[in-house]
Design brief:
heterodimer, A: 15 helices, 3 strands, globular, B: alpha+beta, Penicillin-binding protein 2a (Domain 2), Beta-lactamase, 27 strands, elongated
Chain lengths: ~400, ~750
């Protein structure tokens, strides 16, 4: 393990009891053990996000109000990340079942009349004061932690999970997935499936299981389409990618995607300048502060700005992969892998739909899109990654 | 960590890297490779052009009186895009309300405003089709409001407009604006309808002929479709103003990118004199009334007054006609239907749009032809028997023995021309027998006079009749084309009936140009057809010493500020291949028609009491027998001017289905002469009896400015005179918006 923190610098013991500042600089201190590259990447993404959310909401005259709320979300998210990073590893494992139960409760509440519908998905709980909570975002964390715990705890003495472990994982994931499917939020369901698949595959299960799961996914997808389990509009999101479907829903999605493409193309290399995107200001792209925020980056910041977002998202994934690789235990690795799969799919799906190569779903771009719950969940995930990393060096 | 997991972690890493690479690659494609196209699409979405039509140029008479100008009108428009946004129910409610207010059927209003291209869906075969495409539909751009009504500037209309304007909540998407629309002041009561033509919304074909950039600008344009409006469209239309506005995704305007003001169109000053035009139109009506009083059908009358010296059309009219504004903005189905079925077909202008046998007025051409090919000479005497080979005289006298050409023209002896025509035909047949080309002198001269060909007037070619001059070649050609019909008719019709006999003869022998055909043609009967305009051009050529003009209605193009853009002169199409002495002889003979007491000319009675010593008028009567009736195509053509000078004008009147030319046409031609020169209690229409050469004085009055600020601008024939006026002298530039309004005061001194 060749981490930079392992460099053989002598720790001056005398400094231990001295100033807070010098304690912070201590080789073994929590602060110095944090992955600062990850922190930097996330911070820049958040700052870009703020700017873009402002620019996207500006044409409606809501620029500053969205900016304020976004900053507030980041601050709350940052605090949650700090808590997630600082909390004891064992405490975390101990409270995982509680977290899991709480997120299930949240998902159930959403399905009651307390929940509200936004953009066709019944996945929100209004808290009043303009704040809403999306329990499925928190459920992502609960499921990652829950499966990580299951796969880690069963590992004593064995090198790989048993069949029962795997089935238990399926069972554990199935409950929230079914609840989210009932909302229905196909995008989140896909995040769950990919995350669970990735975590299981990385836990070292035999290749036939991996192949089996992939086969099952294909058969399942075919079944879902042919048994008409999806709503027409859900199907249309996928069909919008093909040229041949002419249903109204597919045309609408295609239109939206085309508008995003036009806005991005309109940006060119250097962009039109923040707040000066003509397509953005004309609000040709729908949902431009949330799902299609990347189109604002494309138009106003150009290839360099939009490319920076892609690269920074890649950096986040790289750091997360590293943390998973050097985690002290299986739990840490599984948490890291789970978060990588979640972020990787969600980032690729979101930017991909902006670029017209993925179907339209309601998945936000982590750290950049406007949205409280998504921001909190993503930040908690970063906190967990830092937690794993700090522990890995103790 | 197990090895398997470690390996799979590497796979995950590679996967993540490839995803990032995919996104960057796609981003590169969109923002670099595909950027120009996407940027163009963006621009196309963001910028919409709103077109303000330019005030159209006016059409003026030779003294500056407008035949067509623009007047402000309250225009009610519907913006269907804005209305669509309110939902189907509200849309229907608003349209119903508006229909009631405007007194228009709902369906019509709905159809007129529904875009032709909406809604477009795929049918079962997978083709894109329009679900419903009502007629008429709106072929404008969806965001461009559609004009649904032009209210007359009356108090009641203004009240109506105010009601709509004051309740925007009840009329979303409906606007009421003060705009310039075409107006027909009818100077001196003259209509000149079909000559002026009309404008209509540009058609799909005209639109398709434009460049893509122009197509967007002219999508909503009113363009000239007939008459002078079509002929001088290029000058009259001006350049529309284009305001490019940036719009958001709903089409709502967010700002102005650029704004070009419309350039008003140039005016067309014509040779038409409103006074003469009105007089001619009135005389046509009188001729019809009189003929009907004598028991004739008199379904139509047509006439032309031509400036014999320069080929300018001074007046041209046909009766019955339609009101000049009937087609603007569009003609009602009811009126159109009535005009189509009315006797005398008012939609066809018989002065230039159709041709008919000219009767003995054609003798100018046959005389010229016979002199030209040597069949006859001015010194010769030829027989004028009572009948020739069974053919009688139609009008005029016969049985005068051996007479010279002059007498034959004065008394209009048909048999004189029969005999010469027969001689002419036989000579040609001999040439053909010797495998030589026939001379066909009459036909050749007829073409030199511009007959049987486009007269080349400044009107759309499709509206102008060529007439027909039969010769051996085209007779055979016609027969080849129509043989089938003749023979079918001969077989189908009851045997022995009049039409059956004609068909049978045509079927068997129609390819032969018979001597009878030549004889008939020489007295202007049978297959020969000529329009009054063509006849006027021919007589003008004889009168002016041999110059055949392509007549011109327009005299000049003048800019709205009074600057001369272009002077228009009638081009010379031909010079008659006749000697001066022959032409002088003919002119004198035609003077005899109206003046000779012995023998008595056929036009003498009509010109009884006319002061020939002051204005000498010659002419020729024509009476074309109409097959199967006892009615005639009655003609009188005349030329004249101040005595002792070259003839100034040619005046022709044709009265269909009436008495002889001397009775049904000649007196009304004389009345026009009286009016022009101020005889018989009229006030002379031209000073010195000559049409003005100078362009009229034009006064421009800008709307919204007090009278003290009005600018006078004189348009004269020379460009240098106009360029002396500096921009400072012209005052502030005119307000060039839709409400831009100009008024002209025809008579100098009438202006404040």
């Amino acid at each position: 393990m060749t981490d930079w923190s392992e460099s053989t610098r002598a720790a001056p013991i005398a400094l231990r009891r001295e100033s807070l500042r010098s304690r912070a600089m201590d080789r073994d201190s929590f602060i110095r053990q944090l992955d600062w590259v990850l922190v930097a990447a996330v911070s820049v993404l958040c700052v870009l996000g703020c700017a873009l959310v402002w620019a996207a909401a500006k044409p409606q005259g809501l620029g500053s109000s969205y900016l304020k709320k976004d900053v507030l979300n980041i601050l709350i998210g940052g605090s949650l990340a700090a808590v997630a990073a600082l909390v004891d590893y064992r405490t975390l494992r101990a409270y995982t079942p509680v977290l899991y139960a709480a997120s299930l409760f949240g998902l159930l509440v959403v399905l009651t009349p307390l929940g509200s519908t936004i953009n066709g998905a019944h996945s929100w709980i209004r808290l009043g004061g303009g704040f809403e909570v999306q329990p499925s975002e928190f459920a992502k964390i609960a499921v990652v932690l829950g499966i990580a715990m299951l796969l880690a705890e069963k590992r004593e003495g064995r090198s790989e999970p048993t069949r029962n472990d795997i089935l238990l994982c399926f069972g554990l994931a199935a409950v929230p997935v079914l609840l989210i499917l009932a909302q229905p939020d196909v995008g989140s369901v896909m995040v769950f499936m990919i995350t669970i698949f990735g975590m299981l595959a990385l836990s070292g299960i035999p290749g036939r299981w991996v192949g089996g799961m992939l086969g099952l996914a294909v058969v399942g997808a075919l079944f879902v389409v042919h048994a008409h389990l999806l709503h027409q509009y859900q199907l249309a999101r996928f069909q919008a990618l093909s040229q041949h479907n002419t249903s109204v829903a597919a045309q609408t999605f295609k239109f939206n995607q085309k508008q995003a493409g036009i806005a991005i193309g309109n940006g060119g290399l250097f962009g039109q300048g923040l707040g000066h995107g003509t397509q953005t200001n004309g609000q040709f792209v729908p949902e431009q502060q949330t799902d299609f925020v990347f189109s604002v980056a494309g138009e106003e910041l150009g290839l360099f700005g939009a490319g920076l977002i892609v690269v920074l998202s890649g950096v986040v994934l790289w750091r997360a992969l590293r943390i998973a690789r050097y985690a002290r235990d299986q739990f840490g690795t599984m948490v890291g892998v789970g978060i990588v799969c979640w972020f990787a799919f969600q980032t690729f799906e979101n930017i991909g739909m902006n670029l017209g190569i993925m179907p339209i779903t309601g998945l936000p771009l982590p750290f950049v899109s406007y949205g409280g719950t998504s921001m909190f969940a993503s930040m908690i995930a970063i906190g967990l990654l830092q937690n794993v990393r700090v522990r890995s060096n103790r | 960590m197990p090895d398997r997991s470690r390996l799979r972690l590497v796979v995950l890493g590679v996967l993540v890297l490839s995803l990032v690479a995919t996104l960057l690659g796609r981003l590169w494609y969109l923002q670099v490779l595909n950027a120009p196209q996407l940027r163009a699409e963006a621009l196309n979405q963001q910028i919409h052009d709103i077109v303000t039509p330019a005030p159209r140029g006016e059409i003026l008479d030779d003294t500056g009186k407008p035949f067509v100008d623009n007047k402000p009108a309250l225009v009610v428009s519907v913006n269907r895009t804005a209305l669509d946004r309110m939902g189907k129910t509200v849309e229907a409610q608003v349209l119903h309300r508006l229909a009631r207010e405007l007194g228009k059927p709902y369906t019509q209003l709905n159809n007129e405003t529904t875009p032709c291209t909406y809604p477009k869906v795929r049918n079962q075969q997978g083709q894109l089709v329009y679900t419903s495409r009502p007629t008429p539909c709106n072929n404008h751009l969806a965001y461009q409001p559609v004009v649904v009504s032009q209210l007359k500037p009356t108090l009641a209309a203004a009240r109506k407009a105010l009601q709509i304007k004051e309740k925007p909540e009840e009329y979303p998407g409906v606007t009421v604006e003060l705009t310039a629309v075409r107006h027909y002041p009818k100077p001196n009561g003259a209509l000149a309808s079909s000559m002026l033509g009309y404008i209509q919304l540009i058609g799909p074909k005209q639109l398709a002929a434009l460049s893509p950039a122009d197509r967007a600008v002219y999508q909503n344009a009113q363009v000239g479709v007939t008459g002078l409006e079509a002929q001088y469209e290029h000058y009259l239309r001006g350049a529309p103003g284009v305001k490019a506005v940036s719009v958001d995704h709903l089409g709502a305007v967010t700002g102005t990118v650029r704004d070009t003001a419309p350039t008003p169109g140039d005016d067309v000053v014509t040779n038409i004199d409103a006074g003469v035009q009105a007089s001619l139109e009135k005389q046509l009506q009188n001729a019809i009334t009189a003929a009907r009083h004598s028991g004739y059908t008199a379904d139509y009358a047509a006439g032309v007054v031509l400036n014999a010296r320069n080929g300018g059309v001074v007046a041209m009219a046909s009766d019955p006609t339609y009101p000049p504004g009937a087609f603007v903005p569009h003609i009602s189905a009811k009126l159109y239907n009535r005009l189509q079925h009315q006797e005398g077909s008012p939609l066809v202008d018989k002065a230039f749009e159709s041709a008919s046998p000219p009767g003995s007025t054609f003798k100018l051409i046959s005389s010229s032809g016979l002199l030209y090919d040597g069949t006859m000479s001015t010194g010769g005497y030829y027989d004028c028997p009572t009948d020739f080979l069974g053919h009688h005289n139609f009008d005029g006298e016969g049985g005068l023995g051996s007479i010279p050409l002059r007498t034959a023209l004065i008394v209009s002896c048909d048999t004189f021309f029969f005999e010469l025509g027969d001689r002419d035909w036989n000579r040609d047949q001999h040439l053909i027998a010797q495998h030589k080309k026939p001379v066909e002198g009459v036909q050749r001269i007829a073409h030199a006079y511009g007959l049987g060909e486009q007269p080349g007037i400044d009107l759309p070619i499709g509206e102008v009749a060529e007439g027909h001059i039969a010769d051996r070649y085209n007779t055979k050609l016609n027969w080849e084309q129509n043989k089938k019909n003749y023979c079918a008719g001969a077989a189908r019709r009851p045997k022995g009936s009049y039409l059956q006999q004609i068909d049978e003869q045509n079927c068997k022998l129609g390819y032969i140009f018979l001597p009878g055909d030549q004889m008939n043609q020489d007295i202007g009967q049978g297959t020969v057809t000529v329009s009054p305009l063509q006849l006027a051009v021919a007589y003008a050529a004889m009168a002016n010493g041999g110059t055949v003009f392509e007549p011109r209605i327009a005299k000049a193009i003048v800019s709205p500020t009074g600057k001369l853009v272009k002077r228009i002169k009638a081009p010379v199409r031909d010079h008659l291949p006749l000697s001066k002495s022959d032409l002088d002889y003919l002119r004198n003979a035609f003077y005899g028609v109206t003046t000779s007491r012995s023998p008595v000319g056929t036009g003498v009675s009509a010109f009884a009491g006319f002061p020939m010593n002051r204005v000498l008028v010659g002419g020729k009567t024509g009476t074309a027998e109409l097959t199967g009736t006892n009615q005639n195509g009655s003609w009188f053509v005349s030329f004249g001017g101040p005595a002792g000078q070259k003839p100034q004008f040619v005046t022709v009147i044709e009265v269909n289905k009436s008495d002889q030319g001397a009775i049904s046409a000649a007196p009304y031609v004389r009345n026009v002469w009286d009016a022009m020169y101020g005889f018989g209690g009229n006030k002379a229409l031209f000073a010195n009896g000559v049409p003005p050469h100078k362009l009229p004085k034009v006064q421009i009055v800008e709307a919204g400015l007090p009278p003290a600020h009005h600018h006078k601008k004189t348009a004269t024939g020379s460009a240098s005179a106009t360029s002396s006026a500096t921009p400072a002298a012209m005052g502030p530039p005119p307000v060039l918006d839709a409400r831009y309004e100009r008024q002209r005061f025809a008579r100098p001194g009438a202006a404040p």
